[in-house]
Amino acid sequence: MTATDLTVRLGPLTLKNPVLLASGIFGYGDEFAGLADYSQLGALVLKTITREPRAGNPPACRTAETPAGMVNAIGLENVGLEAFLRDKLPLALAHDTNLIASIAGDTPEDFAHCAAALDSTPLAALEINISCPNVKHGGMAFGVSPEASAEVVSAVRAATTKPIIAKLTPNVTDITAIAAACQRAGADALSLTNTFSAMVIDVEKRCPLLAANTGGLSGPAIRPAAVYRVFQVARAVDLPVIGMGGIWNASDALEFILAGASAVAIGTALYADPAVGHRVLAGLRDYLERHRLATITDLIGSLELH
Amino acid sequence: MSSPEVPPQPECRKLPPRDLLRVQAPILETAALPGDHRRLLLQAPQIAAVAHPGQFLHIWPHPPAEIDRPPCAALLRRPYSISRLRPPDGLEILFRVRGAGGRLLAAKTDGDLLDVIGPLGRGFSLRPDLRAAVVIAGGIGLAPVPFLLEAILARGARAILLVGAASDDAIPYPVERPRAGRATLPDFAALGADVTFVSESVEGILISEVLEARLDEFTGLGADVFAVGPRAMLKRLAQITEGCLSLQVSLEERMACGLGACRSCVVPARSDDGKAFVTVCRDGPVFYATEIDWERLQP
Prior knowledge:
The complex is a heterodimer of chains A (about 300) and B (about 300).
Chain A: E1 8-10, E2 13-15, E3 19-21, E4 43-45, E5 63-66, E6 69-72, H1 80-92, E7 98-103, H2 108-118, E8 125-129, H3 140-143, H4 146-159, E9 164-167, H5 175-184, E10 189-192, E11 196-198, E12 201-202, E13 207-208, E14 215-218, H6 223-236, E15 241-244, H7 250-259, E16 263-266, H8 269-272, H9 276-290
Parallel strand pairs in A: 3-4, 3-16, 4-7, 7-8, 8-9, 9-10, 10-15, 15-16
Antiparallel strand pairs in A: 1-2, 5-6, 6-14, 11-14, 12-13
Chain B: E1 21-33, E2 37-43, H1 45-50, E3 56-60, E4 78-81, E5 84-86, E6 90-96, H2 99-106, E7 113-120, E8 132-138, H3 145-154, E9 158-165, H4 186-189, E10 194-199, H5 207-213, H6 215-221, E11 224-228, H7 231-241, E12 247-250, E13 266-268, E14 277-279, E15 286-288
C-alpha cells in the first residue's frame, strides 16, 4: 500500500492536508488545548478580530440549537488587534501548523490597518471576513456587494504580502459575482460559505429567541446549500476554494472536494467532537486508499454531472 | 453598613490551568428522583481525581460510537454540574427530564457509554480558614450542592443549607415535613448540614427572605455564602449580602462550546466601561457576586 498524499495548495499557500478549522469556532487557539493535537490539521483559522475590541451582541441569548444545526448571533465579540497580538497569537503559535487570522472592520481602511499590523507575524495567511451576518456595520454589508467586496480585498492586498482569503456569504442572489470581484481585486483564495441568515422564534413569548433577533445558521442543516455554492463558485472563478458548511464526517468533506473545494473547514461539529478534524482526516485517507488514489488533488472538482 | 471583613478578592481569580479530559464514561447506575428528575452515576476516574465543587461536565447525549453521524436533535453537548463524587471513581449528575438532551440521557441504562469532557469551568472557592458556610439553592440548583457541602464539611466548617422551591416536587430530593418543626431534606441533614427548606406553595416565602431574616446570625458566624438557582434569586441574594457577606453564585446560560471559545454564554461583568462580558463556561460558572453587573444581567 502506498502512502496517500493529502497535500493541497491554496494559491501561494501549501497545506499538509485539506482539513481546516473554521473561524469563530476554535477561538484564538488555546481554548481547546488538551483535547486533541490540532497541529495535525492543515490550518487553523482563528476567531475574527477587529481594529478595536468589540463587546458583541447582547447576551441571553446568542446561540440557539435548531434541527441539525445552530443559529448564532455573537456579533464579532473580540479582544481587538492589540490584545490579539500581545496575548492571543503567542499562544496560538504553539500549534505547529498554518495559522490564519480572520479580520473584519467597518471600513476598508480598518481591514487594511489590521492586515498591515499582522504582516510581520508568523501567520500563514489572512482571511477577510466580509460575511458576518451578525453586525450592523461592516461584515456582510461588504460581502453582499461585488464593488464593496472588491474594495476591501484591494485595500488588504495593498497592505500585506501574505496570502489573502476572502470569506463569502451565501446570503446573496449570485455568489459567483462576488467571487469574481474578489478575484479581480487580488484575493488568493476564497472560503465559503459563512452562515445563512436565520431567525428562531419563541412562540410562547412571541419574540425572537436570539437577543439580536436574527443570526446565522450553521451545522449539517446547511451542508447541501453550501456544497452547491462551492460548486457554483469553483466553476465560475479560477481561485482555490475552501469549502465549509455543516461538515461532520469525511463523506461530507468529500462532497465539498468533489464539488471543487481544494480544502475544507469544519465549524459547528467541533463543539460535539473536538477531534472531528482528525476523524475527517482519517476518513479521507481511508477513501483514497479504497479508491486507489495517490493524491487528494485528483479528487478536487472531479464531480461528474448527469 | 458596618465595615465587613474583606471578602476574597475576585480580581485575584485568574483562570486556573485546566486539567481538561475527554473520556468515554460508562454509566454505572441510573436512578429516578422526585419531580421528574434523574441521577446518573458515571465512571470517570481521571475527571473525578481533579474535579472541584461547582465545576461541570459537557456531555454529548448520543452513543459515542455514533459520533460520525450528525444527529438531527441535540447536536451540541449539554452542560451538567458535577453533583457529587462517588469514590473510588464515580461522578454523579442530576438533571430534569426536559428538552432533547434530558430525554436522551433519561433513556440511558447501566453500561451505556457517554462522551464526557470535563471538569470544566471555575468552581467554588473555599478559603483555607472557612469557619461557616451558608449554601443557598433554588429548585434544580440543588444539583451541585452535595459536592460543595461535602467539601465544606471536610474542612471542619459548619454548613447551613437553605433550600427554596416553588413546590416540594420541584427539587430532586425528598422533602420531610414533621408534624412539629420545620421542613427538611433528610439526604442533606444526613451529611451533617443544618437544613432549612421552604416552598412557595406551602410556607409561602422565598429563600431570600430566610437569608434576610437570619443575616445577623450569619454575619456573626463570619460565614461565606454560596448560591445556585434562578437569576432572580441570585440577584436578590447579591443585594442582601452586599457589603456584609462574601457571596459566590453559580450562573447558567446557553452554551455551545463549553470551553470559552464561542462567546455564546456570556454574562455582563462589572467593568470600568460598563461593557465587559465574561463567559459562564470558562470564567464561571461560579462568580463572586461582586464580579457580576447585576443591573445589566438579563432575568
